[in-house]
Amino acid sequence: MDMTYHDYDVPQDLQFKTADIIRLGGLECSAKLSPAYFEDVFQLPNKITQVAVSLSFSVANKEILVRGTISGEREVQCARCLTMSKQLFAEEFLETYSTKTEIIDIMYLVRQTLALTEDIRFLCKPECKGLCPMCGQNLNEAACGCKPENLSPFAKLKGKFK
Ligand SMILES: [Zn+2]
Ligand SMILES: [Zn+2]
User: Fold this and answer.
1) Averaged confidence pLDDT in the chain
2) How far is the CA of 128 from the centre of ligand 2 (A)?
């Protein structure tokens, strides 16, 4: 049977003592986290701007089952035009630990979950025109004067073997 302790003081680094969870007979809790913990989880300039976690620990036999939801807001970069857009997200995870584990490292799980959901092919809109490869102009905002013939693969090859 799970018990709910909403006043449980969730550690900001999300390192839970297994002994505490066993003593409480399970735990349900949630916390808002500092985005600073997640500055390095993404490869692209993508970043987390708001993040909260809600957790449910249940103790059964020799195992602790953890179900979690991470939700918040992130800024993601368009793969074509490189502009940043805000996006809401919600991800779930599930993990079991032995009751012999001393510390349950939820931070690791949260970071892993977030890293795995990075979309490196994200587009600000399906028809995004991207940047001009010659002058860097964002073609969604304005056309540039570059001549399209200079962009043909043949023209590029010609330049290479000059
Ligand atoms: Zn775009
Ligand atoms: Zn251009």
Assistant:
1) 88
2) 15
Q: Residue 107 is inside which H or E element, if any?
A: helix 106-116
pTM: 0.78
Q: How far is the CA of 74 from the centre of ligand 1 (A)?
A: 16
Paired residues of 55 in beta bridges: 29, 68
User: In this predicted structure, what is the pLDDT of residue 6?
Assistant: 52
Per-residue pLDDT for 159 more than 60? no
For residue 145, the ligand closest to its alpha carbon is 2
Q: Report residue 1's pLDDT band, with 50, 70 and 90 as the boundaries.
A: very low
The answer on pLDDT for 146 being more than 70 is yes
**Helix, strand, coil fractions of the chain, as percent rounded to 5:** 20, 35, 45
CB 73 within 8 A of CB 50: yes
Chain-centre distance of CA 77, in angstroms?
A: 13
Give the ligand at the shortest distance from the Cα of 78. 1
Ligand nearest to the CA of 125: 1
- Ranges of each domain in the chain: 15-126, 129-162
CA of 150 to the centre of ligand 2 (A): 10
